[in-house]
Amino acid sequence: MYSAITGWGMAVPENILTNADLERLVDTSDDWIVSRTGIRERHVTTPDETSSTLAIRASQQALARAHLAPTDLDMIILGTVTGDYSFPATACLVQDGLGASCAAFDIQAACTGWIYGMVMAHQFVSTGAARNVLVIGVEVLSKITDMRDRGTCVLFGDGAGATVVSASDTPGGVLGWTLGADGARPEQLYRKAGGAKHPITRENIDSHDPYISMMGSEVFKFATRTMGTAMEEALVKANLTAHDIDLFIPHQANLRIIEAASRRLELPPEKVFVNIERYGNTSAAAVPIAMCEAIDQGRIMPGSRVGCVAFGAGLTWGAIALQWTAPVGDVGA
Ligand code: UT7
Asked: Which atom from ligand 1 is nearest to the alpha carbon of 37?
């Protein structure tokens, strides 16, 4: 079977945090943030919004576009590092919220979570083990960001993206993929406290350990090295080259990283999807959110060849090359 994306949806909180708002919180400027990252604003959750509430909204949209009922799902795979609880999996909360009755589990590949989930869904669908798999990337990083750390607080936003991967007879869908990880330096991007190694204590709360900690320039160098090569690997497996891509959807972490990857792949700006200016880095949600907006803007049509690539904490990376086969007629549904 071919594994086609038949449904897509996204959800972001209404609440917007602009660069001007951040200027009032930390020693930063709109000029610095825009020139170093490309970000102008990001959506952030209120206390009663969580990963599961955003994921359910995005998933309901995706199911409607796929013309499926929740009970048609065979599996829910959800990528996040900011689940509602340490356990149980947020995918289980989403399953209940949707009214589905299938297997449900979270995966932890940070910003690469949706790509990892898509590759897993492809394995189940292409082997005939599942017919419809819901893949979600969701993150509410604002809840674990230190709003006094200008090195991280300007970067991240909250959101969810969901896709339905369905078995299809039509040639296309996921054509090639690559996944990778290098766990040698977890401290380059991590949340030190809150896991079993450093349970949260009064002392480590005072030392900011339960917040995101990042060596920005190290991650930047890793990302510029990895994005282009990962995309190329997935394209080779799909018997394609970068020139065959109609739309490149890279992880939205930093405009300069996106530009470096696009240069390496020799892709002109009109083939590169960018929305980082409005959302910041929404981690696992970034690529599926971008995919939803690309479809809304008519930049993905049946037959379009699309390349998606992401990198993140772990460090992890992954890319998929796909050919779109589903109708996009009910855009805006
Ligand atoms: O999804 C994966 C998640 N992470 C990433 O993708 C992050 C990848 N890294 C980056 O995007 C960039 O490294 C950053 C945007 C985080 C930082 O940009 P940079 O060009 O690498 O800056 P830098 O860290 O080398 O810092 C340059 C200067 C420093 O000041 P000094 O030491 O030169 O005086 C920083 O303290 O910029 C300063 N700085 C800021 N200034 C104003 C760092 N953050 C800010 C800020 N506003 N928000």
From this structure: 15
